[in-house]
Design a protein that fits this description.
mainly alpha, 15 helices, globular
Length: about 325
């Protein structure tokens, strides 16, 4: 008993001599912790710099040059010539800008509200809601190139589904060329893009609706508000953070649209987009890296000019609220 008591006393004395950590005080990082944190933050940052920022800055610099992509010694500094030619004598530029604007308006006006409608209905936990979610979200999971290929088969003027159903594939009679007719093909490809975009918006809004406090709806019902009034005055204002995300995603999707259009008809005959012009100039038959870089910079500036002011106004409203 004496020996045990003495050992306990010695251990208690050692514990008392150890420096005590203040409550709430974090311990110092060990060398191993610093190494792990460095790897966790350094690798993604390095990849972001190498694959995003360096190409972006290189594109900005190359937009002031003339370069065919063969040898660095062939790069010639020409100042603003590329931009002047794009805005004045490039015949495909302004139609492409117009098509991108139409693309943005169409996505914002049709599939985005439709996605909100689907999300609101599915949030009611109707029967087979899981099945409906999967069915509407399927186009988002599938590659845009695959969607473009599928719709190209549907719109095929000779053997496509639509012309076969409505008997509009007779060259000597009623014939609709969905792919080659400039009056039809942009709207035809927008249907395919809207089909995909609606599923994307549905998932975003469904996630937002799950975060809405159900007691707000109950309070609105107690006050005598019908379903539309409750949605308009209670639910939709509560979705403001999601609306910011939806607006940014819609702008980005409309400006970077490429896969569906390129598979559909390579962006020709009335479906020209800025992304198509960039690709054709950089990796086309006559490679003009400087010209394509100038178009990419214009697309970047347009994207930032649309997104940044909207975010500033939205965040200011949130702070005031």
């Amino acid at each position: 008993m004496t020996v045990g008591t003495s050992a306990d006393a010695v251990e208690s004395g050692r514990a008392a001599d150890r420096p005590r950590r203040a409550p709430g005080r974090l311990r110092r990082l060990t060398r191993r912790d610093k190494t792990v944190l460095t790897l966790m933050t350094g690798i993604p940052t390095s990849l972001m710099v190498v694959f995003v920022w360096v190409p972006a800055l290189a594109s900005i610099l190359l937009s002031f040059t003339s370069w065919d992509g063969i040898g660095l010694d062939s790069i010639k500094w020409i100042g603003l010539r590329n931009y002047r030619q794009i805005f004045t004598i490039y015949p495909q530029f302004w139609p492409a800008v117009e098509h991108n604007v139409i693309w943005l308006v169409a996505l914002a006006a049709i599939p985005t509200p439709f996605g909100l409608f689907l999300a609101y209905q599915l949030d009611k936990r109707i029967r087979f809601s899981r099945f409906y979610q999967g069915a509407f979200f399927l186009p988002v999971v599938v590659s845009s190139a695959v969607i473009g290929f599928v719709w190209e088969l549907i719109y095929n003027p000779d053997h496509g589904l639509i012309n076969s159903l409505f008997h509009t594939n007779n060259p000597n009679g009623s014939y609709l060329d969905w792919v080659g007719n400039p009056k039809l093909n942009l709207w035809a490809v927008l249907v395919a893009a809207s089909w995909r975009h609606a599923g994307y918006m549905m998932i975003l809004y469904l996630a937002g609706l799950k975060s809405v406090d159900p007691t707000l709806k109950d309070a609105a019902a107690v006050d005598g508000a019908n379903e539309w009034q409750a949605f308009r005055h209670v639910v939709f204002p509560a979705l403001r953070p999601i609306n910011v995300v939806v607006a940014v995603v819609t702008v980005i999707e409309s400006l970077r649209a490429f896969d569906i259009v390129y598979v559909f008809n390579k962006g020709e005959h009335g479906t020209e987009l800025l992304s198509i012009l960039i690709t054709n100039n950089i990796i086309g038959e006559a490679s003009r890296i400087g010209y394509g870089s100038a178009l990419a910079v214009i697309l970047l500036v347009v994207s930032l000019a649309v997104i940044i002011p909207y975010l500033i106004v939205t965040f200011r409203k949130e702070r005031r609220a």
